[in-house]
Amino acid sequence: MRTAVAACAAALLAAGCGGGRTGALQLHACTIGGSKAIAAECGNLSVPENPGDPNGHHIPIHVAVVRATGPTAKPDPLFYFSGWGSAGVEDDAQLAPLLVDVNLDHDVVFIDQRGTGLSNRLTCTPPSGSASLAAVTVASRRCAARIGPNLRYYTSAVAVDDYDRVRAALGYDHIDIYGVSYGVTTALIYLQRHGAHVRSVVLDSGSLLDVRIFEQEAPNAQRALDLLFKRCAVDASCSSAYPHLRADYGRLTARVARAPIPIPGTTAKLDEVALASVVESLLAFDKPELPRVVELVSTGHLARAAAIVAPLLPSGQQPYLAYQLLIQCSEPWASWRPAQVARLAAGTFLERMQLHGAAIMGAVCKGFPRGYAPAAIGRRVHSQVPVLFLQGDEDPADPPANVTHPQRELPNSRVVVFRASGHGHLSLPCAENLIARFVAEGSAAGLDPTCASSAAIEVQFDVPPS
């Protein structure tokens, strides 16, 4: 049963959106995607910041529609659900060319989630890195007070209700969804709350809603690192170039534990937490570089390592998106329970980073309100809608184990695992083809996923020339 807030939002949607192609959302020609310069139609849909107060303060939800390029557009568009911390439409739209086959017959719709991009972006500036936990709580309390009581509605459930308002305002009855990373979470929540309007769903590098991904981040990342070491050891070129990779990495971690290593050209230093962060980032998005970084830093070639490492290190006191903090304080899948973090992180390369993260989030949440998060957000979704899962077998954040036995609740789902792959697969031609075929057919039954066994670009290690 829907809560009063959700019911009110649904009632407002039914009353306020017309049945035409654009309804209450007026679109104009625009260019998105930065240097990609993609022609689109953009607009803002006004929605109540508090769904339970339709006459209260409204915020814009920014939308960009890339129209189907073929002569006969299908009635169901593909909605793109963003990853964690996305900069919004401008950032996401750069991936539009990778959806060219889908875009031939389907409009592709990008949306700035509330609190991001041009949809009333809200941020909180953290105190200095050396600040006490008490200072973190004070800073988060001040930020929450500055934003106001409606901060509690910047959660996943309200965000997907915004998306459904966009769907209705654009005049679409059914949509297809592509969600990546956190976009898998919001796609599942959308399916949970608005499944009657979903034709098919592609879930790329995510987890089911009953998986507490931040608490399990450390063992999952350790597993990915161990798999990479094993794969290098049996790969002729990698084992020749880096014959002692695991041991070299062990010596490197021991070295930074004794004293941080300065990174040339920056004010940053590579300490235990920074090294763990760099390793995790490379495991997720650029695994071929990881053996090279270990070798360069271990042998003192710091200037050459800096080109890879420096962009992965935090620069100054960057503001946090408020919705990310609120969600981690409010939604079960994003929790940081200290006892569970300590137990699961023990002995992993992320142990110190995770313990630090749990302490920081505990301090943040003391100063933040509890966000609107229905209990169902922490439970698996039941649906007959066709679902295609794309998972990387070396993903440090969302490994295949995070979508174990989805057919129990999603009987028309299928899981495709990409060998040697990390996080996100849209850049792989194999994934592009599978997505296009799945959306075209509206079913995963006839898909041939054989290409996933060798498609990942990460299979090739970055081996220096001899």
Describe the structure.
By secondary structure, this protein is of the alpha/beta class. It has a domain at 4-122 and 148-211 and 376-457: 3-Layer(aba) Sandwich (Rossmann fold). Helix content is 38%, strand content 14%. It contains 16 helices and 13 strands. The chain has helices spanning 4-16, 89-92, 100-103, 133-147, 156-169, 182-194, 217-234, 236-241, 245-258, 272-285, 290-298, 302-309, 322-330, 338-345, 351-367, 429-441; strands at residues 28-32, 38-48, 58-66, 78-81, 108-111, 123-124, 175-180, 198-204, 261-262, 269-270, 320-321, 387-392, 413-418. The strands form three sheets. It has a nine-stranded mixed beta sheet with strand order 1-2-3-5-4-7-8-12-13, sandwiched between helices. Strands 6-11 form a two-stranded antiparallel sheet. It has a two-stranded antiparallel sheet with strand order 9-10. Helix 1 runs parallel beside helix 5 (156-169), helix 5 (156-169) crosses helix 6 (182-194) and helix 11 (290-298) runs antiparallel to helix 12 (302-309). The protein is globular. Mean pLDDT is 91; it is low at 1-23.
